[in-house]
Amino acid sequence: MDPTTLPGQANPTEQRRSGQQGTQGGQQQQSRARGRGRGGHGHGHQHANHHANPSGHHQHAGPPAVAAAAGGGASPATRGGGQQHSHAHDAGQRHAHHHGAPSPRHDHAHGTATGHNHGTAGNNHHNHNNHNSHSHSHGHGHGHSHDQHPNHQNAAAVAAGNAPAPANDEPESEEAAFRRVVNAFRAYAENAQRRIATAEQHMIVGTRPEQRRHLPMNMLRTVFQQLRTAVSTNAAFINEMLSHDSLFDLQDHADERVTQIAAVNQQLHGAGLGGLSPPTEFELDKVRSTLKQFAREWSSHGQAERDASFNPILDVLKSEFPNPQGFTVLVPGTGLGRLTWEVARAGFRAQGNEFSYYMLLASNFILNQVQTPLELCPFITQFSNNFTRSLQLRQITVPDVDLRSLPDTCELSMSAGDFSAIYTEPDSWDAVVTCFFVDTAKNILDYVETIMNVLQPGGIWINLGPLLYHFSDTPGETSVELSFEELRHVILSYGFSIEQERYPISTPYIDSTEAMMHTQYESVFFVARKPLQPAAPIR
User: Fold this and answer.
1) Residue in 432, 420, 425 with CA at minimum distance from that of residue 104
2) Where among 251, 281, 311 does a domain terminate?
3) What per-residue confidence (pLDDT) applies to 537?
4) Which domain holds residue 83?
């Protein structure tokens, strides 16, 4: 690695809307590196989409690299006291590092991010063919944790996505939280094989001998063997994901917690993580949800879902900014990064923000490490509501798009940490996009305040999603749960004007049109604009 500073560092007096790019050696790069605020270090991803060769293509064979931007990624600097750490990858895979205290300066570069993991672990609404409401333990995780404590006293929840705090109520380090996530991924194969073996055993012990002769035993034997083989496919995918260490390649960072995480990351290639209790069912469910999130965000299987959720957002961005170069778009709750990637592909300077280590590990893998498409079978432990076993055994290919197909002028990055805590610089973004995100807050007014603060005067907030409040009925947690009518009043009271508003919009989530049960939300879509001058609040 070449420990040089990022090319294209702009003067603090740079005009943000100019779209001017810094250059070094003829390579174009733009980014904004921010310091870590009180909401956690942001090791995120950042992609420097350099095109030094005359052909305009990357010189390396793999997808565009996405590097880390600590505590807020490549974006306007936070005012919190922290340190910056950013990586940029040029066409020759050379890394450029920069460290320093947060300041108003701007480093320009590329990155990637997206969406959410509505997972399978909480109360979720399902539309059946008869349109009856059906409540399951299916969670609305959006792919990131919900703990918003500024000092990470519930780091286990940060890692696991609203998991319970450690039994002794002692603060859990980010190192331990990360270890738990890796441990859960590593335990996937054994757990999946056990679940399949249990289902197979129930075919025998759950039926009487005279009944078993009516079962298609040869067919079932074949199915269960195929399921066991599919577990091996998924295990190979996970092992490949865990074999890369670029996400936490931060050993030279001065921050102790990040150094701890880097040390843990070195153990990814070791014999085990030692000293950890077996992962909980909640943690294993987050792993299964993450695999399904690959299907939604990065496979052709999820194209219809993405169109329903992403297209209204992208249409507004393209209409609002017909010449997008130089305009900045922030996507909090980005999950595996597809929506932010699509925003960048449209020509914007896009940054995603994510809080969950499950999502951060997975998005780093798909955006930075995958050289050729990989196979995955994300539905194999789903034994209910199958018309045929072929649905359960369905194999997907990820990614379904060439990650090198971004335009020369785009910028794509990702930050890690709590949205409201690390995005604190006023008037710093041209647009904020919230897709299946606003209901992840304990107090949704915090999100409204943050968005109002970070938007440029005249900037727009584009929202699409339901209001399935994640902390609803969570013991020991407060949850401010507004109807959309009430939320609309809040938005107007803070000074926004609502320019577009449509609902309900049918938006499936990790759904299969061929299954007996469908997960679909009737979402609300709106576009709100920050005034050019502060407005008096509505009473």
Assistant:
1) 425
2) 281
3) 62
4) 9-116+288-529
